[in-house]
Amino acid sequence: MVICCAAVNCSNRQGKGEKRAVSFHRFPLKDSKRLLQWLKAVQRDNWTPTKYSFLCSEHFTKDSFSRRLEDQHRLLKPTAVPSIFHLAEKRGVTGHGSTRRKERNKAPGAVKGRAGASLSSNEDPAAKLEPKKPKQVTGREAASARADLECLGPAQGQASLERPLGDSGAAARPGTQCEADALDEQEEKSSMSVDDFSPPGSGPCRFIGSLHSYSFSSRHSRERPPAPKEPGDRKRPRRDVEPSASSSSPGPDKGSAHSPPSSSLTATPQKSSPSPSAPPADVTPQPAAEAVPSAMSINEVILSASGACRLIDSLHSYCFSSRPSKSQVCCLREQVEKKNGELKSLRQRVSRSDSQLRKLREKLDELQRASSPHLNGLLLPSSEPPTMNPVLEPLSWMLGTWLSDPPGAGTFPTLQPFQYLEEVHISHVGQPMLNFSFNAFHPDTKKPMHRECGFIRLQPDTNKVAFVSAQNTGLVEVEEGEVNGHELSIASHSIARISFAKEPHVEQITRKFRLNSEGKLEQTVSMATSTQPMTQHLHITYRKVTP
Ligand code: HEM
Fold first, then answer.
1. Does residue 407 contact residue 500 with C-beta atoms inside 8 Å?
2. How many CB atoms lie within 10 A of CB 411?
3. For the complex shown, is ipTM > 0.95?
4. For atom 35 of ligand 1, which residue has the closest CA?
């Protein structure tokens, strides 16, 4: 890879200054802020850096570099901005690198000079060239274009099409200063994409148009003789790089893409690319001094132009073929925008519903307050829960909502064993008592079964507990007992029932509540009826579902 420095009046190129260990560094194309700083420092008019534009290390202060630990290679710091330039020297119309090119144009067979003179600008095709108006560029623009393109030898041009740029430098020049470039590339994470060769909008067309203008100008400047078949052309070593468009090349003129005669202008569509979005080509004029060892004949030059023209056509066809995908992208973008719009309106609707809901709640609260103005404190849950009466402390472990887990087990000598589900609420409202409700359900049908509710009181300053319960079976009972730690044991003190209560009547009841080591609440109920002695009727374990 031959790399030139893009700085005005700097003739450093890779290979030339090896002894001075000059390194070359890509423009930070992906870091717009830094790129502006670089461009300001470089002070090149009407010039846009490309991926193939480099600055050599001589434009950076020493502290712009760091050393890679493993091999001590010089690395440009990611914040580095060039500051050392010799702008006052020959800053003529041709601008950057004019001396260098003059020298090259003097070289024998300097076809490059002619080609370059009419070659349209290679300034960033995305940014500068107009579609359908291939403009004849100024000498300065052409020089700028050549300056970058000349720096890429044919091998590099080909390599750059065949693999990501990050690979190319390191692969081509292992162990050389160019590894620093490769590292720079990695730092910028630049990999080749369609955009590299097909800039947004009509950039590619404009670029190709500019190539056409080169081609036409070559043709019209001379009378075109009959195209001779010169087999020797192909054998000419290193003068030309055969266009490598294969049968899978996107261009319609595949045959012609294969057979242009030698040319110092090398248009190289990418080798059979598996992807339809693969970049079409790079255009890489070769340095005349290196690539053209002997003068070319007029015929050769014209044939070159003709070959280039056909390749340019194939580039055009690539360009057209990429348009549908662009329109697809546009279409997708429209869809995304549409969906975003829908999402926005949905969000607005949700937020409207939220505010309506809030208003309805407020209205309901108002109605409730109006209907029972004296019970608000009990009926309406205030935002803060009531403070628990300290008397309840010994029973506080019973507080909460509990769900049977697993289902409760019912037994009695006169009954078939059964299972049931139960939901338990034990709460307080700041008074010195617990409120409870036990609601049993059939495990399969979920139908309500046994229900009871009541209060649990503690005699102040004792562990004596009274349990008062009303059951849906028509039983009303009082049980008393003691709380010890996390265990409450009570037994029936008095039992009353409705006159038509079902028989056999319960005559004695004992219960035990305990909080087990897993934090679960357990209840065991035993009873004696008019027909059966004290026997266990229920055993159930609950897990807590709320505080
Ligand atoms: C302390 C509370 C309870 C008492 C005092 C109580 C009392 C009784 C009595 C006296 C019987 C009649 C026994 C017999 O026929 O020999 C009975 C039956 C029964 N109990 Fe309970 N029971 C209580 C809680 C529950 C609970 C929580 C369930 C759960 C679903 C339940 C389910 C049943 C069933 C399914 C029967 C048999 C059918 C029936 O007679 O309705 N009991 N219970």
1. no
2. 14
3. yes
4. 418
Helix then strand then coil, in percent of the chain rounded to 5, is 35, 25, 40
Distance of CA 220 to the CA centre of its chain: 52
CA-to-CA separations, 328 to 322, 323, 377, 468, in angstroms, rounded: 10, 9, 64, 76
Is 440 a pocket residue for ligand 1 (Cβ < 6 Å)? yes
Asked if 36 contacts 45 with a C-beta cutoff of 8 angstroms, the reply is no
Residue 287 CA, ligand 1 centroid: distance in Å: 105
How high is the pLDDT of residue 18? Answer: 54
Ligand 1 site, residue 537, Cβ cutoff 6 A: yes
Token pair in block for residue 163: 């693999």
- Spacing, Cα 192 to ligand 1 middle (Å): 81
Query: How does pLDDT run across 47-101, given as a tens digit for each residue?
Result: 889 988 999 999 999 899 988 777 777 789 989 999 998 877 544 433 344 444 4
Closest protein CA for atom 38 of ligand 1: 415
Instruction: List the residue whose alpha carbon is closest to atom 25 of ligand 1.
Output: 450
With a 6 Å cutoff on the Cβ, whether 424 touches ligand 1 is no
Determine contact, residues 152/261, Cβ cutoff 8 Å. Answer: no
Residue 422: phi, psi to the nearest 5?
A: -150, 140
Q: Contact, 496 vs 476, CB < 8 A? A: yes
3-class DSSP string for 84-114 = CCCCCCCCCCCCCCHHHHHHHHHCCCCHHHH
Task: Give the whole-angstrom CA distance, residue 364 versus residue 370.
Answer: 10
For 82, 261, 269, the CA distances from 318, given in Å and listed in that order, are 38, 22, 9
Above pLDDT 70, what percent of the chain?
53
Higher pLDDT, 13 or 509: 509
Q: How far is the CA of 436 from the centre of ligand 1 (A)?
A: 19
Q: In whole angstroms, how large is the CA radius of gyration of the chain?
A: 45
Q: Which residue's CA is the closest to the ligand 1 atom numbered 26?
A: 450
Q: By the 8 A CB rule, do 513 and 487 touch?
A: yes
Distance of CA 12 from the midpoint of ligand 1 (Å): 103
- Three-class SS state of 120: coil
How far apart, in Å, are the Cα atoms of 424 and each of 369, 405, 452, 527, 542?
28, 12, 10, 20, 8
Burial class for 481, CB neighbours closer than 10 Å (0-12, 13-18, 19+):
buried
Q: What is the DSSP string of 366-432?
A: HHHHHH-TTSHHHHSPPSSPPPPPGGGGGGGGG-EEEEESS-EEEEETTEEEEEEEEEEEEE-SSSS
Task: Kindly state the average pLDDT of the residues 107-118.
Answer: 35
Give nearest CA residue, ligand 1 atom 39.
Answer: 415
Ligand 1, atom 27, lies closest to the CA of 450
Give pLDDT tens digits for 322-374.
555 677 788 888 889 999 999 999 999 999 999 899 999 888 888 877 776 66
Tokens of 19: 């002894």
